[in-house]
Amino acid sequence: MALMTGEQYIESIRSIPMEVYLFGQRIEHPADHPILRPALNSVRMTYDLAQLPEYQDLMTVISPDTGERINRFTHIHRSTDDLRNKVKMQRLLGQKTGACFQRCVGMDAFNAVYSTTYEVDQQAGTCYHENFKAFMLDCQTRDLTVDGAMTDPKGDRSKPPHAQADPDLFLRVVERRADGVVVCGAKAHQTGILNSHEVIVMPTQAMGPEDKDYAISFAVPLDTPGLFLIIGRQSCDTRKLEEGTLDVGNQEFGGVEALAVFDHVFVPNSRIFLNGETSFAGMLVERFAGYHRQSYGGCKVGVGDVLIGAAAVIADYNGTAKAAHIRDKLIEMTHLNETLYCCGIACSSEGMPTPSGNYMIDLLLANVCKQNVTRFPYEIVRLAEDIAGGLMVTAPSEADFRHPKLGPVIDKYLQGVDGVPTEHRLRILRLIENLSLGAAAVGYRTESLHGAGSPQAQRIMIARQGNLAHKKALAKALAHIKE
Ligand code: SF4
Ligand code: FE
Question: Is residue 68 annotated as part of the catalytic site, yes or no?
Answer without folding.
Answer: no
